[in-house]
Design a protein that fits this description.
single chain; about 300 residues; alpha/beta; TIM Barrel; 8 strands; about 35% helix
């Protein structure tokens, strides 16, 4: 699958960042890919039976799979000061928060100095854990004002993408290892007015993401095996981070490099030195007695 996607990316060019976000499929249209093994959800079944988009226009059925419509681009999707890869960005992970008071925990992170809020979505298939879905993201979006960094650890990010965009995601990161057309998914994210992120697991070679680096705003290098919080930091991933930073400089690109897993002040030092600028931290932020001090320590590491 990855080899096929590399070929597709080669055909479309490996030029620098595609800042205008132009893609093949109009925003808000029904988008279709072949997949005989995907089970439709209830919403998809209704759409398939009605054969229309809900506004009187017909669905162009060219295969067995139908995507829900992507919402129109938001006029202003970044609700905080925009950051560049030159800035250090601290993104506490909600996975380590108290789920009985999500809105309050988000407010606590904001008041402690968080730049972004990292939201790990797990489906129990791509990773061996289940976390939360669009409803939680929408609740945070409607109750607080912070950049929502949504990490989709799910098997079919292309299928669920419109729901997370509608819920209020600002950046959507998908995995190169997941079962989807990576290039098309990245284009759809940008068409919707969000930042596009691409993640790779510790065991995945850096070379697997190279064909897509001109189409992303963020590269997430997992520093633990994804699925559960509280794991130990894998310093063996640092050469991959350094390679991503070197490639970015060589090609004149501008994507963030994010690390996620086992991040604290000590491991943040190693990550910054390798070239990362976005630190996802769960247990060391939400689990700290003084969250503000913990965030400051990671930022100044």
């Amino acid at each position: 699958m990855i080899e096929h996607q590399k070929k597709q990316a080669d055909e479309q060019g490996r030029a620098g960042n595609d800042s205008d976000g132009q893609g093949k499929v109009p925003v808000g249209s029904k988008q279709v890919v072949s997949d005989e093994h995907v089970e439709m959800g209830m919403e998809d079944e209704v759409i398939a039976k009605s054969m229309n988009c809900g506004d009187g226009s017909a669905v162009n059925m060219i295969s067995s799979r139908i995507f829900l419509p992507i919402p129109p681009p938001r006029a202003s999707f970044v609700r905080v000061i925009a950051r560049t890869f030159h800035d250090r960005v601290i993104a506490p992970s909600l996975l380590a928060a108290d789920f009985s008071k999500v809105a309050e925990e988000t407010t606590r992170a904001i008041e402690a100095g968080a730049d972004w809020l990292h939201l790990d979505v797990m489906d129990g298939h791509f990773v061996d854990n289940i976390s939360f879905g669009p409803a939680i993201i929408q609740a945070i979006h409607e109750s607080n004002d912070i950049f929502l960094d949504v990490h989709l650890m799910i098997s079919r990010p292309d299928h669920y993408l419109p729901r997370f965009i509608a819920a209020g995601a600002d950046c959507v990161t998908v995995h190169v290892e997941a079962e989807h057309d990576v290039l098309e998914t990245l284009e759809r994210i940008r068409e919707a007015g969000c930042l596009a992120g691409l993640a790779l697991n510790p065991a995945t070679p850096f070379e697997e993401v190279i064909p897509f680096l001109g189409k992303i705003d963020l590269l997430l290098c997992m520093t633990v095996v994804p699925g559960f919080g509280g794991q130990s930091f894998m310093d063996s991933v640092m050469p991959k981070v350094a390679a991503a930073a070197a490639y970015r400089k060589e090609k004149g690109l501008a994507y963030h490099i994010e690390v996620d897993g086992g991040i604290g002040a000590t491991t943040a030092t190693l990550s910054y030195a390798a070239g990362a600028n976005v630190m996802v931290a769960g247990s060391t932020t939400f689990g700290a007695k003084d969250m503000a001090a913990a965030i400051t320590a990671i930022r100044e590491a």
